[in-house]
Design brief:
- The strands form two sheets. Strands 1-3-2-4-11-5-12 form a seven-stranded mixed β-sheet. It has a five-stranded mixed β-sheet with strand order 8-7-9-6-10.
- β7, α6 and β8 form a beta-alpha-beta unit.
- It is α/β, with parallel strands linked by helices and 379 residues long.
């Protein structure tokens, strides 16, 4: 499949009002049923799924101060002498409002209780979710006061284009957290009632079905690439910075479909969008009527695990302190409730396990990128 960003795709993106602080995004894909997934090795303590529909997304600024609970100091993990003595910044490399932003804001709020300091969420979207981590790697001191989410694009983008950072060398891995539920939605009044109808139309009308996603190289992009590769359909790839822009494009009639994580959930629940397919190993608890790509015979499973990293060179004592504190936040019932709300799975990995998984992902994601014909040519 060829999934090209042509002029009409670019124009669709341009019609969405630009803003430096908007919409959420995510990152996620499996090729041959094994790449970009959680896997079965130890570390998954259970597959906690959605128990109830999530609430509405609140308007948020680019950086919000998340305050620990007043009684939380007694729960804090004991840190190295003198650390932390001031607030910690957590970079969310997506705009506000999407599933990753919602998750990590709650995680930061809860984690502040165990770290013993406020955690400031800083949204830094762009470059397929890698602008934030790359900026941290290039300019932040390894002192434990700057952390970032590391999306799946970290292991793909270097195979697609030249970058100034290395996904293994330039980060200190703290712990793995969770992964996404991805799906493809259309407007409620769309001609497409099933994913097969959309595939059939795109096969008969190459690049006439525009599918918005959260950026080149992200899982919402690559699951559609893979869907085309496996079915012979050719979709028009329309990248955005995050979920909000993607959603506005679909609801405004500028794109035909949307591929993303569960940022689409409120609009599906409100009847504004139709969920055609999800990409997990099994149907979701929250939207059980929607089939999985796997059960439909497409052979695609994608959940794109992610975690927290710091700049390279972090003191091992601070690394261990952060791991221990953030592990407690990961297991906190209030945080687990957010995972349920977003239909995201629990994916704990220790610092060592997370690094080992990252090294494996660099190799496995190269195979995916090569199979999709997106591997960059040698300089």
């Amino acid at each position: 499949m060829e999934c090209r960003t042509k002029a009409e795709g670019a124009h669709a993106a341009e019609r969405i009002e630009e803003s430096g602080c908007r919409g959420g995004g995510t990152d996620h894909s499996v090729f041959g049923g094994s790449i970009g997934t959680f896997g079965q090795a130890g570390g998954i303590r259970g597959r906690r799924r959605v128990l109830a529909a999530g609430g509405s997304v609140l308007a948020m600024g680019c950086a919000d101060l998340l305050l620990p609970h007043p009684t939380a100091r007694a729960q804090a993990v004991q840190g190295p002498a003198g650390y932390p003595s001031r607030p910690i910044t957590l970079i969310v490399p997506w705009p506000p409002g999407g599933s990753t932003d919602r998750h990590l804001r709650k995680f930061a709020e809860v984690a502040g209780r165990y770290v013993g300091q406020n955690i400031v969420v800083e949204n830094k979207p762009g470059a397929g979710g890698m602008l934030g981590p790359a900026t941290m790697a290039a300019s932040a001191r390894p002192d434990g006061y700057t952390l970032s989410q590391l999306p799946m694009g970290a292991f793909r983008i270097p195979h697609m284009q030249q970058v100034a950072w290395d996904p293994i060398r330039d980060f200190t891995y703290i712990l793995g957290l969770t992964g996404y539920t991805f799906g493809i939605t259309v407007r409620a009044d769309s001609r497409f009632k099933t994913i097969q109808e959309m595939v059939d139309f795109a096969r008969a009308n190459p690049e006439k079905v525009s599918v918005g996603n959260t950026g080149t190289g992200t899982s919402p992009h690559l699951v559609v690439e893979e869907l085309g590769l496996r079915t012979g359909a050719r979709f028009l790839h329309v990248p955005f910075k995050g979920n909000s822009e993607n959603t506005l494009a679909l609801l405004g009639g500028h794109t035909d479909a949307l591929s993303d994580a569960t940022g689409w959930g409120p609009n599906v629940d409100a009847g504004k969008m139709r969920l055609l397919v999800t990409f997990g190993e099994r149907r979701t608890t929250r939207w059980p009527y929607a089939p999985t790509a796997r059960e439909l015979g497409y052979g695609i499973v994608s959940n794109s695990p992610y975690g927290i990293v710091a700049p390279r060179g972090l003191d091992p004592k601070i690394q261990k302190f952060l791991h221990d504190a953030l592990r407690k936040a990961l297991d906190d019932p209030e945080h687990l409730k957010m995972l349920e709300t977003l239909d995201q799975e629990y994916w704990y990995r220790s610092s060592e396990e997370y690094l080992a998984w990252a090294k494996q992902s660099v190799e496995s994601e190269r195979k995916l990128i090569e199979a999709l014909g997106l591997l960059r040519k040698p300089a």
